[in-house]
Amino acid sequence: MMDRMQRLLFQVLTEPQRGGESLLGTIKIAVLPIAKVFTMCFLGFLMASKYVNILPANGRKLLNGLVFSLLLPCLIFSQLGQAITFQKMIEWWFIPFNVVLATISGSLIGLIVASIIRPPYPYFKFTIIQIGIGNIGNVPLVLIAALCRDKSNPFGDFNKCSQDGNAYISFGQWVGAIVLYTYVFHMLAPPPGGTFDVEDGNLPVKNPTRNSFNALAKDNSPEQLPLLAEEAIPAHSSVTKKEKVKAFLKYIYEKLKLKQILQPPIIASILAMLIGCVPFLKKLVFTSDAPLYFFTDSCMILGEAMIPCILLALGGNLVDGPGSSKLGARTTAAIIFGRLLLVPPTGLGIVMLADKLGFLPPDDKMFRFVLLLQHTMPTSVLSGAVASLRGCGREAAAVLFWVHIFAVFSMAGWIILYLNILF
């Protein structure tokens, strides 16, 4: 009986499935990229540990800045620019739309989970965001690179696999940035009358100029004016039309948070799309014998350094552990469960429905795989940066630590499922 069960198990593991790959081969293809990511993160952790201390906190901060400001924009510009055309932009419309759908569905799941577990009062919206906002940029780029390097990967040639995958991921990042610095920034604001109990919590950040004008509109008494406010413009002073337009544009710029949205990776995405969609410019910049190709080639060389650098920095950031958090084990476990186990099946349903409705390019497996990854990733690292700005950085760091630890196992499982569905 035991021999028969062993033979049956061996047959299931080694018998070719759809796409000609055995279950054991599919597991290998899915697990190897995760193992590579884990290995590089562990090396970063080791370099940042007190026993080695080659990558201290200041070094990690500089490395993160280098990745975000130079290496990642170079990778996006070179990969997206070579792949994008105006026709492809029209065909790829569902990628940014999928980012919005992932945010909505993830936030709804976060709302349900938060309503059930009832986290500490100031962290209700925080819980929704930690479940609803996934990493649609750095981690997917790393996974695609690791997956495409494997000669047995089902997506074919390494160059086409990596170029298409990176282009699809980069094309959705600009929407993710808008979501992050508008919706997430608003949701992570401390509740009315509440506080996240951070240092300098009694020193609210104000805009002296705007507050001065608001105060003047309400009451001209000195008691109503804030300290250190800028001098108000006298009523009789002449203000030119040019100055009024300038003031209005500055107000719109601050109100829309364009400074936060127009980050280096987003600028690189916009430039790549603009140049890639104009045939003359694309030929001038992205063709191998073009006069400006040296710039693109330089970006490609720098972009290749992004993957190892960001993984070393991510592993190094885990050296401090979860730190002190007021969320509690119950809320933290619920966030991990919601983000890694409840959000992905919802995303799978969205992508399969879109495929049946004909919204996706036919026979493009990588396109579908990237859409699925957008629903499967751990909590966004950049949402942790926004949380720090809003005063709940310690809690965000604790969540990011545990979510990324458990994501190593959950992502392997979901990738196995996705590959079996796609192939």
From TrEMBL:
Q: Which Pfam families match?
A: Mem_trans (PF03547)
Q: Say yes or no: keyword Transmembrane present.
A: yes
Could you tell me the superkingdom of the organism this chain comes from? Eukaryota
For the biological process aspect of GO, one term held by this record is: endoplasmic reticulum to cytosol auxin transport
GO cellular component annotations of the record: membrane
**Signal peptide residues on this chain, from the entry's feature table:** none
Topology in the lipid bilayer is annotated as:
Multi-pass membrane protein
Q: Which UniProt keywords apply?
A: Auxin signaling pathway, Membrane, Transmembrane, Transmembrane helix
Task: Tell me the compartments it is located in.
Answer: Membrane
Primary localization class, coarse: membrane
Q: Known InterPro entries for this protein?
A: Mem_transp_PIN-like, PILS2/6
Stretches that traverse the bilayer: 29-49, 61-80, 92-114, 126-147, 167-185, 261-281, 301-319, 331-354, 366-387, 399-421
Under which name does UniProt file this protein? Protein PIN-LIKES 6
